[in-house]
Specification:
By secondary structure, this protein is mainly beta. The chain has one domain (2-229): Single-stranded right-handed beta-helix, Pectin lyase-like (Pectate Lyase C-like, 3 Solenoid), CATH 2.160.20. The protein has two helices and 20 strands. It holds the Pfam family Glyco_hydro_28.
Length: 238
């Protein structure tokens, strides 16, 4: 499948498998969201890949125009929660390479219950004060190549340039699966609040965070280069 050069207005779309064979999606153009945040804001996602096994996605620029929703939230108005820019749900054997992602309403790339995911040479941009716009969020997944959520295992984060923002965070909430075998290496953090962080609930739980390696990381003007916080969620409990 080929998306030619040009700019394309796109509302919420879903690509649903299973598929008969491996596919390639070549994106030369730019996808933009509607200017009115309400067209996407009440949805969980903007672009969804569900139960797709074997797809390679190359290139493309995607602009979710999230600033109007961020402004709504900053004023304390009754705003929708916002849509994830791209979601992969129950997908296997996926390569995402060369994508440029701008101004997501929420998380840019969301990965849930996936296996064998490779994300390479990507550029993810949002203002440092935009609310809850994690670059990549992974949970209940294995074998990935950057919040890291519950049930994530065998993750490799290599050669990342990060900043400004919150840094890379393996973390977990109460009543969730653990996180293990996470390697973060050969990366640079510039003007971030944190470099690498491990956070958890302070109360008793079956969850865990283990076998986490931070190696060869460069920090420039980072407030907390490495922080381990087992009381991060204390003040957020109802």
């Amino acid at each position: 499948m080929v998306v030619p050069k040009g700019t394309f207005l796109v509302k919420s779309i879903s690509f649903t498998g299973p598929c008969k064979s491996n596919m390639k999606l070549l994106i030369y153009g730019t996808f933009i969201a509607p200017n009115d945040y309400r067209f996407l804001g009440s949805n969980e996602f903007w672009i969804m890949f569900y139960r797709v096994d074997g797809i390679s996605i190359f290139g493309g620029t995607i602009d979710a125009k999230g600033s109007s929703l961020w402004f709504c939230k900053s004023r304390g108005n009754n705003c929708p929660s916002g849509a994830r820019l791209i979601s992969f749900q129950s997908c296997n054997n996926v390569l995402l390479r060369g994508l440029k992602s701008f101004n997501s309403q929420r998380v840019h790339i969301s990965i849930n219950r996936c296996w064998n995911m490779f994300l390479q040479k990507m550029k993810i941009v949002a203002p440092s004060r935009s609310p809850n716009t994690d670059g990549i969020h992974i949970e209940s997944s294995t074998d990935h190549r950057i919040s890291i959520g519950p049930g994530s295992m065998k993750l490799r984060v290599d050669k990342i340039s990060c900043g400004p923002g919150h840094g890379i965070c393996p973390g977990r909430n109460a009543r969730e699966y653990g996180v293990q075998d996470v390697n973060v290496m050969n990366s640079i953090f510039v003007k971030t609040e944190n470099g690498v962080r491990v956070k958890s609930w302070p109360r008793a739980s079956d969850g865990y965070a283990k076998n986490i390696l931070f190696k060869n990381l460069v920090m420039k003007n980072v407030s907390n280069p490495i922080i381990i916080d087992q009381e991060d969620y204390c003040l957020r409990q109802s």
